[in-house]
Structures are given as structure tokens and as C-alpha cells.
Inverse folding.
């Protein structure tokens, strides 16, 4: 059911704005909208920067803090306590940011020192300070690199009176030192060029390369010790990760309040938004807690306005809302909530696709434990609940088809899909036909309710009779009933398919032309053959895993291996089956079912509320 919406405008004093927003956030009842001339809180940018800083601090301490247990409960706090930010938590986040910054600086020092070490490596054999490698009054001094393959030809330079010292190799070449009398410098360099000599100065240092190298190593060791100290500090900060997580939630809640658009004068302000009609009293109560000086104006939506969508269903249907929202949220102007009609069909078809008793029980137990212990929230909780519900038809159809972890432990109630695929295909197509007719019936209902009875008779009811007649043709005992259905459907199609025209001939020929739509309906019904395909693929994979496990049994090691094959194989098959059934069952709803009566196009009702990620916040008043 789509809940009707009202437009609410709240006028109050400027001094009460923060108090009012706090109460509205607690009540989670008003979706505040933008207006002409709206402004935001002056501290919005500052709060956004704090949110980013706290998120960066949390990301950093997660690398060093103790990992929470998979089933560990989130801390629970009261709303009044939640909105009070603690100075200790803010200091903790600042410390984390400081530690991260200093660690980055130290790591940069280590990286720079390692790079400098590589520059000193080729010159380590030199026993004189590097800053003394320069020409004298009588001698020329050259340093550089020569290809390693030409190192044995340096005697040519020595024949010209040069002193040549090979140093250390570096990336295919060798560092070398060449000293000669200035009078021979030109001849020596001319002879060195054909050898591939490239002149290059060593890094500057007032000590020998070895001494500078050792100093850099000492610097690296000192930096690593400092890095270890900082890591210990980070671990101590990480031990209090829950405080930083709560700070992140608090800052995000603060950011939501400061992001609210409002209009103001010198002494007053007002906000406007959408509120569910059944929660008007809650809205007024929330305002009253914040201030006694206010005015609340409630109006119906204007004709050109489309309010947000909020649906309300029973406990069984509610989880299936997430499937519809993935397709398109209900449109309040269309006023169709397809979830009560879709939920049982999705439930049934999902179970047919899985169809295994063993997998059904594993789904039921595992997902139930996950929900109870992990306590997922929001849309993810709805999705996991849908999968848990789907375990029931999975067990039922597993019994019908005799599948127990891919094996036939008990005879099937109906048939075995692997041995009677044609019979199961007929069943799947019959389910598809009924599913499509159900969608056509919903469309006809809404058209009748809106006064479009001729459209409903010509384009929905007629096809329900025609499809039923085609289906009954395959049941010899019901051939007469099939002819009756085909006759009624054909007459309705001829009479009302083109009801908008007054010309009888145009109506008749238009109805005949509409018969071509049968190709679309047959294509839709054939889409339900995917139910058999997924049922068969899951069954075959399960059977193969059982065969592989049985082949290695015969010894203790063989039994151990077979157990591993059973566990790994069936877990893989269950995971792939769940994914495939989820996707294809959804597709059958979105294309074949919703395509007959549902358009959607709405947007979510998203009120100002507390949306914590790491904390359970109790918003009820004590």
C-alpha cells in the first residue's frame, strides 16, 4: 500500500532551528525539500571537512586496530547521548591524523635515503672524500661510467699516461676514475669516448662514499625505529576504534542537519517538506518538543507535484520491496504497489529454480543465523530475509522433484527433472502462463477501477481467455473448455481491442491485427524455460560433485578428500545457484510480470534521520 503524503511547512524562531532539526532527525518523519532562496547552515563546509578528517582517521586506525568479530554486536547508545560529541573522541581522531602524517613523513625519509644509497653504491671503493675529486693545478680528474664490456680496454688510456681505477658496477656499466696530466687530458678523453665513457659526477659529500653510505644506513635504521614507535601508538589508538567510529556517525548526523535547506528572516525561519499523512501527529509532537513558538501548515500536494513514495506492507511482504525498488520505485500518481502481488510469485519461482531439500535447509539455517548474529540493516537486511524466506519453497520443490544435495535419497512426489525434462518444462511454462495472466488481471483491475472497462476487456481480459484457451488445448479432457475460452477471448479482442474508434470495420480489423501480439506473449511464456535450465544445471553440478566424492572413497585419505569435495563442491553450487536464482527470478518479475501492469517512476521518501553505520542509536524517548 502506498501511503498518502502531505506537504508540511514549519515556521519557527531562528534561535530554535538547531533544536528543531535535532527533534526532526530523532523522529525521522519529514523529508525536507529545497525552496526558492533556500540557504544552508554557515558551518556546513567546516562540518564536511570534519567528516572527511574523521573518515580518514578511521580508515588509518583500521589498519592497526583489532579486527571486530564477524558476529560482534554494534554498540548501542541513546539518541540524547549520541548527539553529544566527546572531546576525547575528537582528540583521538586528531592523534590518529597526526600519527598517520608523521608515519608518511618518516616513510618518505626512508624512501629518500634508500634512493641516495643507490647513488653512493658505485663510488664505495673510493677512499678519498667525494668533495676532493676535482682537478689540481697539474692534473685533470674525471669520473663517470664505462660499459662493462669495454672495461678490459682501459689499458689504452693508461698507455697515454692516465691513471684509471675501476670502481663498482651499476646497471650494465662500471663507475671509474680517470686522472691524467692536464697536457694529456685532451688525448685521454678523445681515446675514452670510443670506449663508451660517459662523464658523471658522484653525489656531493664531505666524506668518503663509504662513510656517507653508512650514515644513510644509520638514518634508515633510526627512521625504522621511529616508524615502529608510531605503529605502536597507532595500535594503541586502534584499540579505541569504536570511539572514532561513533564520532564518524555523530559527524555524519551533524552534516545531515547542516545540509538541510531553509529560508530565514532576521528572527524567523521556515522549512518545507513531505510527511506521511499517518504521521502528522508524530511531526507535531517532534516540533512541540523543540519549541512552543511555531506554526505548522499542512497541505495536499499540488496537481503538478509528485510526492515521494513510501509503501507499507505486512511483515512477510516488506522484505520483497527491495526487489521492486531495484527495478523502479512505485509512483504515487500511478498508485500501484506491486509488492503484495509480486512477493508470492518471486518466492515460488525462486524455490523452483533452486529445488533441493538439502540446499533449502542450509539456506534456512545459515541465513537465519546470519540475520540473528550479524543484524544487517536497511536494504541488505531485506534481501537476506528474502533469501531466508525462499528456503521454504526450495525445500518444498526439492521434495516434489526428489533432490537432496543433488542425490535422490527418496523418490520424488512428481518427477525427476533429469529423467523427465519435458514434463518439468510443461510445468514451468504453465507457471509462466498463469504468472503472466495474473499480471494482466491486475492491469484489468486497475483499469476497471479507473473506468476504462473497454480497454481492460480488449487488451487484458481477452488475452487472459486466449492464453488460457491455448494452454487447455494440451489437455485432451478440456478441449471443449479451451474452445470456449478461445472463442470468448477472440470476440473480446475483436470488439474492444480498438474501442476508441467508432467505426465497426476498423474495430474488427484492428482486433484481427492485434492477434499478432500472440508472438510477444509466446516469447514471454518461453522465458520461463529458464526455470528448468537453472533447476537442471544446479542438479547436474550437485550430482557430479557426489560422483567425484564417491570415486575417491576407499581409504581414510580418500574419505577425507571426499568430504572436502562434498563441502567445497556443494558450497560452490549453492552460491552459484543462489546468485542465478536471484537474478533470473528477478528478471521474470521485471520483464514478464511488471511489463503487463506496472511502470513505477517514483522516488524514495528519505526523511531527515539518524543513519549510523557503526552504532545502534535508540531514538525512542524513555
Amino acid at each position: 500500500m502506498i501511503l498518502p503524503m502531505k506537504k508540511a511547512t514549519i515556521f519557527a524562531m531562528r534561535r530554535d532551528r538547531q533544536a528543531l532539526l535535532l527533534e526532526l532527525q530523532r523522529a525521522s518523519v519529514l523529508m525536507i525539500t529545497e525552496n526558492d532562496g533556500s540557504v544552508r547552515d554557515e558551518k556546513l563546509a567546516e562540518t564536511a571537512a570534519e567528516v572527511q578528517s574523521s573518515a580518514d582517521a578511521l580508515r588509518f586506525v583500521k589498519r592497526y586496530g583489532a579486527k571486530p568479530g564477524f558476529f560482534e554486536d554494534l554498540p548501542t547508545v541513546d539518541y540524547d547521548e549520541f548527539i553529544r560529541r566527546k572531546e576525547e573522541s575528537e582528540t583521538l581522531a586528531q592523534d590518529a591524523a597526526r600519527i598517520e602524517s608523521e608515519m608518511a613523513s618518516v616513510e618518505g625519509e626512508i624512501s629518500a635515503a634508500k634512493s641516495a644509497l643507490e647513488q653512493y653504491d658505485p663510488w664505495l671503493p673510493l677512499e678519498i672524500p667525494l668533495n676532493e675529486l676535482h682537478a689540481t693545478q697539474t692534473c685533470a680528474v674525471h669520473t663517470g661510467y664505462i660499459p662493462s664490456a669495454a672495461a678490459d680496454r682501459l689499458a689504452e688510456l693508461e698507455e697515454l699516461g692516465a691513471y684509471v681505477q675501476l670502481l663498482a658496477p651499476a646497471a650494465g656499466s662500471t663507475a671509474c676514475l680517470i686522472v691524467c696530466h692536464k697536457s694529456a687530458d685532451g688525448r685521454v678523453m678523445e681515446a675514452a669516448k670510443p670506449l663508451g665513457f660517459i662523464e658523471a659526477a658522484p653525489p656531493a659529500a664531505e666524506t668518503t662514499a663509504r662513510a656517507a653510505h653508512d650514515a644513510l644506513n644509520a638514518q634508515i635504521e633510526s627512521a625504522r625505529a621511529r616508524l615502529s614507535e608510531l605503529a605502536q601508538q597507532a595500535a594503541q589508538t586502534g584499540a579505541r576504534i569504536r570511539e572514532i567510529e561513533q564520532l564518524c556517525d555523530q559527524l555524519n548526523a551533524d552534516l545531515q542537519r547542516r545540509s538541510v535547506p531553509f529560508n530565514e528572516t532576521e528572527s524567523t525561519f521556515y522549512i518545507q517538506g513531505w510527511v506521511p499523512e499517518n504521521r502528522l501527529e508524530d511531526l507535531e509532537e517532534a516540533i512541540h518538543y523543540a519549541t512552543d513558538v511555531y506554526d505548522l501548515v499542512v497541505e495536499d500536494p499540488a496537481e503538478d507535484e509528485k510526492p515521494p513514495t513510501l509503501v507499507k506492507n505486512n511483515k512477510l511482504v516488506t522484505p520483497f520491496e527491495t526487489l521492486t525498488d531495484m527495478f523502479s520505485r512505485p509512483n504515487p500518481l500511478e498508485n500501484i504497489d506491486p509488492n503484495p502481488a509480486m512477493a508470492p510469485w518471486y518466492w515460488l519461482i525462486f524455490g523452483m529454480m533452486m529445488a533441493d531439500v538439502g540446499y533449502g535447509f542450509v539456506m534456512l539455517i545459515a541465513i537465519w543465523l546470519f540475520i540473528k548474529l550479524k543484524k544487517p540493516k536497511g536494504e541488505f537486511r531485506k534481501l537476506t530475509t528474502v533469501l531466508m524466506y525462499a528456503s521454504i519453497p526450495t525445500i518444498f520443490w526439492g521434495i516434489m522433484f526428489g533432490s537432496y544435495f543433488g542425490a535422490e535419497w527418496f523418490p520424488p512426489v512428481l518427477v525427476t527433472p533429469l529423467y523427465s525434462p519435458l514434463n518439468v518444462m510443461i510445468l514451468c511454462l504453465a507457471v509462466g502462463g498463469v504468472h503472466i495472466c495474473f499480471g494482466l488481471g491486475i492491469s484489468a483491475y486497475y483499469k476497471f477501477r479507473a473506468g476504462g472497462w473497454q480497454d481492460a476487456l480488449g487488451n487484458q481480459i481477452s488475452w487472459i481467455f486466449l492464453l488460457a484457451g491455448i494452454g487447455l488445448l494440451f489437455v485432451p479432457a478440456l478441449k471443449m473448455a479451451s474452445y470456449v475460452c478461445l472463442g470468448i477471448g477472440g470476440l473480446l479482442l475483436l470488439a474492444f481491442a480498438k474501442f476508441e474508434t467508432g467505426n465497426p470495420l476498423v474495430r474488427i480489423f484492428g482486433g484481427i491485427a492485434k492477434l499478432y501480439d500472440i508472438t510477444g506473449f509466446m516469447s514471454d511464456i518461453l522465458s520461463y524455460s529458464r526455470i528448468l535450465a537453472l533447476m537442471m544445471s544446479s542438479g547436474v553440478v550437485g550430482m557430479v560433485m557426489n560422483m567425484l566424492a564417491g570415486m575417491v572413497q576407499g581409504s581414510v585419505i580418500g574419505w577425507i578428500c571426499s568430504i572436502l569435495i562434498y563441502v567445497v563442491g556443494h558450497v560452490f553450487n549453492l552460491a552459484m545457484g543462489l546468485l542465478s536464482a536471484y537474478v533470473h527470478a528477478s528478471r521474470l518479475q521485471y520483464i514478464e510480470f511488471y511489463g503487463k501492469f506496472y511502470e513505477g517512476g517514483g522516488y524514495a521518501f528519505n526523511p531527515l534521520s539518524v543513519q549510523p553505520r557503526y552504532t545502534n542509536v535508540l531514538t525512542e524517548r524513555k
